[in-house]
Design goal:
The chain has 107 residues and is mainly alpha-helical. The chain has two domains: 75 residues; 32 residues, no CATH class. A two-stranded antiparallel sheet has the order 1-2. A hairpin with a 4-residue loop joins strand 1 and strand 2. The longest helix is centred in the N-terminal third of the chain and has 56 residues. The model has no long low-confidence stretch (mean pLDDT 87).
Length: 107
C-alpha cells in the first residue's frame, strides 16, 4: 500500500510540474503573440504613411516644380519639336510635319 501511495504521489508531482511548465510556456507564447501583433500594427501605420508620402511626391505639379527649380528644365515650344516618322516597310526614319495642319496639307 505504501508503494502505491508513493507511486501516486510521484505521479501527482510529475503531473503538477508538467502543468506548471505548460502554463508558463503558454504565457510566454501569449506575450510573443501580443508583441507580434503590436509590431504588425506599427508596420501597418508606417506602410500607410509611406503610401501617403509616395502619393504626395508623385503629384505632377510637384514633379514639374522640382524639374524647373532643381534641374532648370523648361517646356519645349512646338517650334523646337521634331516629329519623326518611322516607315516599318522601308525601315527608314524621316522627318515628319511639325503641326497637324501641315500634316493635313501634305496629304
Amino acid at each position: 500500500m505504501l508503494r502505491l501511495n508513493l507511486a501516486l504521489v510521484f505521479l501527482l508531482v510529475v503531473c503538477a510540474l508538467g502543468l506548471v511548465t505548460s502554463q508558463d510556456r503558454a504565457r510566454k507564447l501569449f506575450g510573443d503573440v501580443e508583441r507580434a501583433q503590436a509590431q504588425a500594427s506599427r508596420l501597418e501605420v508606417q506602410w500607410d504613411q509611406l503610401q501617403i508620402e509616395q502619393t504626395v511626391l508623385a503629384k505632377a505639379s510637384r514633379i514639374d516644380t522640382k524639374a524647373r527649380r532643381e534641374l532648370s528644365m523648361e517646356s519645349i515650344s512646338p517650334q523646337r519639336t521634331l516629329h519623326l516618322v518611322v516607315d516599318p516597310v522601308e525601315r527608314v526614319v524621316r522627318l515628319g510635319s511639325t503641326s497637324p495642319a501641315e500634316a493635313a496639307g501634305a496629304r
